[in-house]
Design brief:
The complex is a heterodimer of chains A (about 500) and B (about 300).
Chain A: E1 11-20, E2 23-33, E3 38-42, H1 49-56, E4 64-69, E5 72-74, H2 79-85, E6 87-90, H3 102-109, H4 119-131, H5 148-161, E7 166-170, H6 178-193, E8 198-203, H7 206-212, E9 215-220, E10 223-229, H8 235-243, E11 262-270, E12 281-288, E13 291-296, H9 303-311, E14 318-323, E15 326-327, H10 332-338, E16 340-343, H11 347-350, H12 358-362, H13 378-391, H14 408-420, E17 426-430, H15 438-453, E18 457-461, H16 465-471, E19 474-479, E20 482-488, H17 494-502
Parallel strand pairs in A: 3-8, 3-9, 6-7, 7-8, 13-18, 13-19, 16-17, 17-18
Antiparallel strand pairs in A: 1-2, 1-4, 4-5, 9-10, 11-12, 11-14, 14-15, 19-20
Chain B: H1 3-32, H2 40-58, H3 61-85, H4 90-109, H5 134-138, H6 143-161, H7 163-173, H8 175-181, H9 185-211, H10 223-233, H11 238-261, H12 268-286, H13 289-294
Helix pairs in contact in B: 1-6, 1-9, 1-10, 1-11, 2-3, 2-4, 2-9, 2-10, 3-4, 3-9, 6-7, 6-11, 7-8, 10-11, 10-12, 11-12
Classes of the chains: A alpha/beta (about 500), B mainly alpha (about 300).
InterPro entries (chain B): ABC_transp_permease
GO cellular component, one term (chain B): plasma membrane
Organism (chain B): Acidisphaera rubrifaciens HS-AP3
Chain lengths: ~500, ~300
């Protein structure tokens, strides 16, 4: 392959420390990224991966330590300094302007664009540049109209266009389908091994590490937890470095069989469609006690609508909902009386007030239980919060810290703690593990399974088929607002479920 | 309507559209960078009174126009400090700026009330200005009219064809992206807002120095709000802002003409309301998020940008 890029460079971090107030994000981390190799930077959420690369790229200034580029100390005070050295980063979001075309986005990112742009010349140059790329992206389409995989490729093309020689990819496959992800990582590896760039991939997908990565660096709680060549490290060894425990969390144990009587019984539920999307048309949906019913489906097929109806955020035009045989209208009163709990997806946004304290957020459901008392009982609230923090192993700087500063896993633990407190007959959960790290995922799933084992009826709506296969006693497939397929969870065929999800069975 | 009436009428359309065009173009640039400055009315009034004061004191129209632009820019700077540096709400800050500009202009203008100045001189083009019909329609205006029209084209060219214009649009469409590429979002927004202030100041000065060369309290009479509506009406494109300004100018003049002629049965007060009703409708419509995206408003319009540490 012939590109204009002058070649991969080596970057080394030496004793980097970075503190935010009292919180130490990085504590003397040293790591060497050898040229023309694909490196993985592994670690749980909050381990310091992004802080480290932001120091390398000039977005943060390290409090201590130095950065060596090609063995020489480099002073990187701001992003422009990193640019000049050929260091670049592909973020998960937000670096392409959606309403502008690929060509405009590429040209704009360059530092040496003349004041008046000669578009015909730029276009010729871009077309010639594109010829040298291992993959193509359309130049004249607004970025907002590209599929996620195409957008990710555009980001990489942009970095090469800017003649970057050291490239950090921040969870590059989190928004891609498995096929897109493999294609993209394959291209990145090919490019790296050709000597054009040095690549660092921030990830926690160990399968991708095994397939595409040469060297691994693991961080844990702001410190170096280990490193080595990918092929000499097993998945178990890498997980152990990441979570600092020798044992990988086991799958939660399923105990007892579902009860006979239904807890949730939905009949003939209808909602109107919105903006060309199908509304709900659920003829019959039953969830029994001590049973997890998983609803699988491609995103946007009515799952969100169902959660909203059960949470009382959207009214059904027709149909009946019964909980333990009593009518359920999804008001707060009915949810309290029938012991129904709903965990929306993206809990920080949909289930918390980010700027209020952990204590306040843990008390939202019950703070007014006292029955018409005017004053809040701060002592009781504090006690309840501390009990939940202990029980659910929530890691927070303090019970009085705003919940928004917690990691995603700890926010989800908070919401689970709040909603599983007391008697729960029906639990509705939507995408509970989206964006969480390995340990948090295992923990959250174990909590859900424990609730089921204790007799709670669980309706699990998830876009992660693996999660449904792991947890559900019974699996339903939803497409265009309808239940189109049902199968027992034990021994369910993922391929068949996938086919029903896309309507090709 | 005879030709003898029509030509002066159309000339008045042009002059009444000019202040709207200046103010709308300035606000358009600010809004394309993602800043909604509702202080246009205040900045226009400041420009009108300072322009008039300097004209009275020095007799120099160039100095008067510079003073007007400087006055608008100063108010815009105040807006920038509050809404950009200190990250206050743009809507609240803009409204406060209008109230401040109104009060300030009344205070400064108290001693000038009722006084007049000679209007800006016409810039006749030898030969062309004497042509029948074409001459009076196109070539018998003051320099500011030509400047406003040229500005519309220049801004269109700037936004489409230059690096600065592209970065400005990027900042308005996706501040976070622009920031991550390394463009100074706040500085670019400052420049856009200051330009908007200068243009609003010129628009106000055109009222007090050319359109009706006198000072009267609150003489902008809501034109700042009309200019704001014009930006939306123009879908944030300078060319359409030009057409829109002339359309709104036309409605204003037609209303005055009908009022004078007694030709129609509609009460003139109703006609006088038309531009303002159109403004209210437009401003109401853009306050809804879905309407904004349908009208292809800059995606970050009105959103406060804070640099993460």
């Amino acid at each position: 392959m012939t590109t204009d890029v002058t070649g991969a460079i080596e970057v080394e971090a030496v004793g980097i420390a970075k503190r935010f107030g009292a919180f130490t994000a990085l504590d003397g981390v040293s790591a060497r990224f050898r040229p023309a190799r694909v490196h993985a930077l592994l670690g749980e959420n909050g381990a310091g991966k992004s802080t480290l690369v932001k120091c390398l790229l000039g977005y943060y200034r390290a409090d201590e330590g130095s950065i060596l580029v090609e063995g020489r100390e480099a002073s990187i005070e701001r992003p422009a300094d990193a640019d000049a050295l050929g260091l670049g980063m592909v973020y998960q979001h937000f670096t392409l302007v959606p309403s502008m075309t690929v060509a405009e986005n590429l040209v704009m990112a360059r530092a040496d664009v003349p004041a008046v742009i000669d578009w015909s010349r730029e276009r010729t140059a871009l077309a010639a540049f594109m010829q040298t790329m291992p993959f193509q992206v359309p130049l004249d389409i607004p970025v907002g109209r590209l599929a996620a995989g195409e957008r990710q490729k555009t980001e990489i093309v942009k970095q090469l266009y800017l003649r970057r020689r050291f490239l950090v990819l921040d969870e590059p496959t989190s928004v891609l389908t498995p096929a897109e992800a493999e294609q993209m990582l394959g291209l990145v590896r090919e490019l790296t091994h050709s000597g054009a760039i040095t690549t660092v991939i921030i990830t926690h997908k160990l399968r991708e590490v095994a397939m595409f990565v040469d060297d691994v660096t693991v961080l844990r709680r702001g410190r170096m937890a280990g490193s080595g060549e990918a092929r000499s490290l097993s998945a178990a060894a890498m997980t152990a470095m990441m979570i600092g425990e020798p044992q990988v969390p086991a799958n939660p144990e399923r105990r007892g069989v579902p009860a006979q009587a239904p807890v949730l019984e939905i009949t003939g539920l209808r909602t109107p469609g919105i903006g060309g999307r199908a509304g709900l048309g659920i003829d019959k949906l039953i969830v029994r006690g001590r049973e997890i019913v998983g609803i699988a489906g491609v995103s946007g097929n009515g799952q969100a609508g169902l959660v909203e109806v059960l949470a009382g955020q959207r009214a059904a035009t027709d149909g009946e909902m019964l909980v333990d045989g009593e009518p359920y209208d999804a008001t707060r009163g009915a949810a309290q009386a029938r012991h129904v709990r709903v965990l929306p997806e993206e809990p920080l946004r949909n289930g918390c007030v980010p700027r209020m304290t952990v204590t306040d957020n843990l008390n939202f459901r019950t703070f007014d239980d006292g029955g018409g008392r005017f004053w809040l009982d701060a002592r009781a609230m504090g006690q309840r919060a501390r009990r939940m923090i202990d029980m659910f192993g929530i890691r927070a700087p303090s019970p009085l810290a705003p919940i928004g500063v917690l990691s995603g896993g700890n926010v989800q633990r908070c919401v689970l703690a709040r909603e599983l407190d007391g008697e729960v007959r029906l639990l509705v959960v939507a995408n509970p593990c989206f964006g969480l790290d390995v340990k948090a995922v295992a923990d959250i799933r174990a909590r859900i399974m424990a609730a089921r084992n204790a007799g709670t009826a669980v309706l699990l709506i998830s876009e992660d088929l693996d999660e449904i296969l792991e947890l559900a006693d019974r699996i339903l497939v939803m497409r265009e607002g309808r239940i189109v397929h049902e199968t027992p969870g034990a021994g369910a065929d993922a391929q068949a479920i996938g086919a029903h999800m896309v309507g090709q069975h | 309507m005879t030709g003898g009436v029509l030509i002066p009428l159309l000339q008045t359309v042009v002059t009444s559209a000019t202040p709207l065009l200046f103010a709308a173009l300035g606000e358009l640039v600010a809004e394309r960078s993602g800043v909604l400055n509702l202080g246009v009315e205040g900045m226009m009034l400041a420009g009108a009174v300072f322009g008039f004061a300097v004209m009275t004191a020095t007799g120099s129209d160039t100095l008067a126009l510079l003073a007007a632009a400087a006055a608008g820019t100063t108010l815009a700077l105040l807006f920038g400090v509050l809404a950009l540096t200190l990250a206050a709400s743009q809507v609240a800050t803009g409204l406060a700026l209008t109230i401040f500009g109104t009060g300030l202009s009344t205070l400064i203008g108290a001693r000038y009330t009722g006084r007049t100045v000679p209007p800006l001189p016409r810039l006749d083009v030898p030969g062309l200005s004497e042509l029948p019909v074409i001459g009076p329609l196109l070539f018998r205006y003051d320099a500011m009219v030509y400047l406003s029209v040229a500005s519309a084209f220049a801004i269109g060219w700037f936004l489409r064809r230059t690096r600065g214009g592209m970065v400005l649009r990027a900042v308005g469409e996706s501040d976070v992206s622009a920031h991550s590429i390394g463009h100074p979002v706040i500085r670019i927004r400052y420049l856009a807002v200051l330009f908007g202030g200068a243009m609003a100041g010129l628009g106000g000065a055109y009222l007090s120095l050319a359109y009706t060369p006198l000072w009267a309290e609150q003489m902008t009479a809501g034109r700042g709000w009309i200019a704001l509506a014009l930006v939306v009406f123009a879908a944030w494109r300078p060319g359409r802002a030009l057409m829109g300004a002339y359309l709104f100018g036309g409605i204003t003049v037609l209303q005055l003409y009908l009022q004078g002629s007694g030709l129609v049965a509609i009460p003139t007060q109703i006609l006088a309301m038309v531009p303002y009703i159109a403004t209210i409708v437009v401003l109401t419509v853009i306050s809804s998020a879905s309407a904004r995206s349908r009208l292809s408003a800059p995606a970050c319009l009105g959103k406060t940008f804070r640099v993460a540490t």
